[in-house]
Design brief:
There is one protein chain. With 379 residues, the protein is an alpha+beta fold. It has a seven-stranded antiparallel sheet. A five-stranded mixed sheet has the order 10-9-8-11-12. Helix content is 44%, strand content 22%. The longest helix is centred in the middle third of the chain and has 36 residues. A hairpin with a 4-residue loop joins β13 and β14. It has two domains: 167 residues, no CATH class; 205 residues, Nucleotidyltransferase, domain 5. The chain contains nine helices and 15 strands.
Length: 379
């Protein structure tokens, strides 16, 4: 299988270089919209080569694009209409936001040791120094990671280049797991994990919820004002809240991975499949914001990609009745769980435990069943 990472490089452009990139980005956006109209007029054309034959000459002559830029424009538009066809949402695609994709070794290269990048413009290649976070440096300097495409992204003060790198790794083998880790995700506890020895890890979320509440109060105050400066602050506030939750989810994922590695030499992580969970759950009006704004999907994505990097397989199991089923006797009943006090007591055998920990144990046990089935199938 293939691991893919996206590295964000902050470009330190001069005024002349910024002007050249501005012009290139504008021409590329206009070329995208022109190509989109041609593709739409031809029935939502999604075949790259056919679309390229129709527009390539005009992209070079009328918009001044270099050869590889013109090819990338055709590729971006073709993939957009291919996606529209598969989703059965065919309409004219409009590219209002800037989107300029580069291909490695064709119209951009990275000099990792010098921390400079060479990127193409309408006129010529320019060499730009960049800043990068220390956590990204190993990807840039290692020979194991190969550079892929890159996207030029405008920022408030200039530009950044989002570079993809990839590396081939072996697929984790589920049948070789010696530890099954069940992980229950929630709001009062962002994650509760348990292993085969019933050891548990809790990541509390009460302080996170309190900080999100402060964001809500700030947002309401700014929305009441409605001034232009208030709207600017609202945008900044939204960015801060998103970055805050992303950072928290990275912390939670790191703790889950650490707990899994401490539980066995070849652990396996089991998560609930929470796809469409908000569509199938009744939530009180006062709790809707918290439920629908909570980044459950992002946390799963981060856990998965960190687990794959460590060679840890991740399973998804059904979330049905995981907090209502007794992990000791198997009795399932809604009244087993006291949501308000976060307690679980089985009405049949009177087994007592924290309700989130019960959920984690049931998730773990469902993962064990899947591993057992795989062992039988591979025998």
């Amino acid at each position: 299988m293939e691991l893919v990472r996206t590295l964000r490089l902050k470009l330190l452009v001069s005024p002349e270089q910024k002007q050249a990139l501005d012009m290139t980005l504008k021409a590329n956006r206009n070329a995208l919209n022109f190509t989109s109209k041609v593709a739409f007029q031809n029935g939502g054309l999604s075949a790259f080569k056919k679309l390229q034959q129709l527009v390539y000459k005009q992209l070079r002559e009328d918009f001044g694009l270099k050869s590889q830029m013109a090819c990338n424009v055709c590729s971006a538009v073709a993939s957009t209409y291919a996606s529209a066809k598969s989703n059965q949402r065919m309409k004219l695609a409009s590219f209002s936001h800037s989107k300029l994709v580069y291909s490695y070794n064709r119209d951009y290269t990275v000099q990792a040791n010098e921390q400079t990048v060479s990127i193409g413009t309408l006129d010529k290649r320019i060499k730009v120094p960049f800043l990068v976070g220390e956590n990204y440096l190993p990807y840039l300097l290692s020979q194991d990671w190969l550079f892929g495409s890159a996207e030029l992204v405008p920022t408030r003060k200039g530009y950044s280049l989002h570079v993809t790198v990839k590396r081939a790794i072996d697929e984790p083998n589920l049948t070789e797991c010696d530890a099954i880790i069940g992980v229950d995700r929630g709001m009062n506890f962002l994650a509760v994990a348990t292993n085969q020895d019933d050891k548990a890890m809790f990541f509390k979320g009460r302080s996170i919820k309190d900080k999100k509440a402060r964001f809500v109060r700030q947002r309401k105050d700014l929305q009441r004002k409605g001034t232009r400066s208030a709207k600017r602050k609202l945008k900044k506030l939204a960015g801060r809240e998103n970055r805050f939750m992303t950072d928290i989810n990275h912390q939670v994922a790191n703790e889950v991975i650490k707990f899994a590695k401490e539980s066995g030499n070849q652990p396996c992580i089991v998560l609930e499949d929470l796809t469409s969970i908000n569509l199938n759950t009744t939530v009180r009006s006062g709790n809707r914001y918290w439920r629908f704004s909570w980044a459950f999907a992002q946390l799963e994505t981060i856990i998965r990609y960190k687990a794959v990097t460590e060679g840890i397989p991740v399973l998804s199991v059904s979330p049905k009745f995981t907090s209502q089923k007794c992990p000791k006797c198997g009795h399932t009943e809604r009244t087993n769980r006291d949501k308000k006090n976060h307690r679980f007591e089985c009405r049949k055998c009177h087994y007592k435990l924290n309700d989130d920990l019960v959920g984690a144990r049931n998730i773990r046990d469902r993962g064990r069943e899947i591993r057992h089935e795989n062992e039988i199938a591979s025998a």
